[in-house]
Amino acid sequence: MSKFGIIVGSIRKNSYSKGVADALVAGLPADAEVTYINIADLPLYNQDLDENSPESYVNFRAEVAAQDAFIFVTPEHNRSIPAALKNALDIASRPWGQSVWGGKPAMVASQSIGGTGASLANHALRQSLVILDMPTMQQPELYIGNTMALADEAGQITNEDTKKFLADSAKQFVAFAAKF
């Protein structure tokens, strides 16, 4: 398992979710092929476009299909995942019966500036991954709270204990993903 797709649910500049993703990537093997997959510019999914999908859909689906495993990092928006992340999940799972997510192992991490660590978004994302047929690592649970105190202005995690925890979690994910 050497191709890891990274999907960050926040499309904000200096995103804390991106900082968490970077800290997770630091725990992947040096020879891992890591691809941050951009979801910010995807047009809203529209089933009418299934027969003649826009180039952005086609390219995104191909990029997802090329990965062996995924690390998702998300903030919480209104007790769920951000619209951009849900849209990306939908685009790569369509047209019906042609999902490119199936069978790819996943890790879910969530973060928030509050103490809950976006736990509801974490579980909302996991719920979608079930129907997408993505085996998802259960432990450790990655709810990273109070990220403003753990990161710098650019969103990068600076707290050494948190960086170690995230890197160690990524190492566990490598072992989990290798089972598939």
CATH topology descriptor: Rossmann fold
Question: What's the total number of strands?
Answer: 5
CATH superfamily: Flavodoxin domain
Radius of gyration: 15 Å
InterPro entries: Flavoprotein-like_sf (IPR029039), FMN_Rdtase-like_dom (IPR005025), NAD(P)H-dep_reductase (IPR050712)
GO molecular function: FMN binding; oxidoreductase activity
Pfam families: FMN_red
Protein name: Chromate reductase
Give an account of the 3D structure:
The chain has 180 residues and is of the alpha/beta class. The protein has a single domain (3-177), classed as Flavodoxin domain (Rossmann fold, 3-Layer(aba) Sandwich). The protein has helices spanning 16-25, 55-65, 83-92, 119-131, 147-150, 160-177; strands at residues 3-8, 33-36, 69-74, 106-111, 142-144. α1 (16-25) packs across α6. It starts with a strand and ends with a helix. The mean pLDDT is 97.
Question: SSE layout and pairings?
Answer:
Elements: E1 3-8, H1 16-25, E2 33-36, H2 55-65, E3 69-74, H3 83-92, E4 106-111, H4 119-131, E5 142-144, H5 147-150, H6 160-177
Parallel strand pairs: 1-2, 1-3, 3-4, 4-5
Task: Provide keyphrases for this structure.
single chain, 180 residues, alpha/beta, Rossmann fold, 5-stranded parallel beta sheet, 6 helices, globular
Q: Briefly, what is this?
A:
The protein is of the alpha/beta class and 180 residues long. It has a single domain, classed as Rossmann fold (3-Layer(aba) Sandwich). Helices cover 37% and strands 14% of the residues.
